């Protein structure tokens, strides 16, 4: 299950987040993808502690990752009476996520170039 040491984002991870953001990804989603990609299986609470994101920010970003089918989520009993903890793992390799972003940007570029072509024809 989870490691007892908490993975924290380093400078390379933060650069990865920045690049994802520069490509149009929301910051919190970029942070989660980066963290899950390097930390592996982790709880929401560990994500909050390691990334500085608040619980609502993690929940909202996780909703987006679930919608893209990029994460697996399961519940684990924590012992005692409370709610079980949600445990998350990235189920899509980072290389596949990057490929999806690349394909999306290539489509956007093709659409923009088509519109430029149409504008040139109109002049």
Layout of helices and strands, plus pairs?
Layout: H1 11-22, H2 27-39, E1 42-43, H3 44-51, H4 55-67, E2 71-76, E3 85-90, H5 94-122
Antiparallel strand pairs: 1-3, 2-3
How does this model look, in words?
- With 123 residues, this protein is mainly alpha-helical.
- The chain folds into 2 domains: 1-92, Winged helix-like DNA-binding domain superfamily/Winged helix DNA-binding domain (Arc Repressor Mutant, subunit A, Orthogonal Bundle); 93-123.
- Helix content is 61%, strand content 11%.
- It is built from 5 helices and 3 strands; from the N terminus they run H-H-E-H-H-E-E-H.
- Strand 2 and strand 3 (85-90) form a beta hairpin.
- The chain starts with 10 loop residues before the first helix and ends with a helix.
- The mean pLDDT is 91.
Structural category: mainly alpha
Average pLDDT: 91
In the CATH scheme, what's the topology name of the largest domain? Arc Repressor Mutant, subunit A
Helix content: 55-70%
Tell me the CATH superfamily of the largest domain.
Winged helix-like DNA-binding domain superfamily/Winged helix DNA-binding domain
Element-by-element helix/strand order = HHEHHEEH
Number of helices: 5
> What Rg do the Cα atoms give?
18 Å
Oligomer: single chain
| CA-based shape | elongated
What's the short version?
The chain is mainly alpha-helical and 123 residues long. It is built from five helices and three strands, in the order H-H-E-H-H-E-E-H.
Q: Which key terms come to mind for this protein?
A:
Arc Repressor Mutant, subunit A, three-stranded antiparallel beta sheet, 61% helix, mainly alpha, 123 residues, elongated, 5 helices, 2 domains
């Amino acid at each position: 299950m989870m490691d007892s040491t908490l993975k924290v984002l380093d400078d390379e991870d933060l650069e990865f987040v920045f690049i994802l953001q520069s490509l149009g990804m929301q910051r919190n989603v970029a942070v989660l993808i980066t963290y899950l990609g390097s930390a592996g299986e982790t709880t929401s609470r560990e994500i909050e502690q390691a990334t500085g994101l608040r619980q609502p920010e993690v929940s909202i970003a996780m909703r987006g990752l679930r919608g893209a089918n990029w994460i697996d989520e399961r519940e684990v009993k924590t012992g005692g009476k409370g709610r079980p903890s949600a445990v998350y793992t990235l189920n899509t390799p980072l290389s596949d996520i990057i490929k999806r972003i690349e394909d999306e940007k290539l489509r956007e570029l093709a659409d923009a170039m088509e519109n430029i072509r149409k504008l040139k024809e109109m002049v």
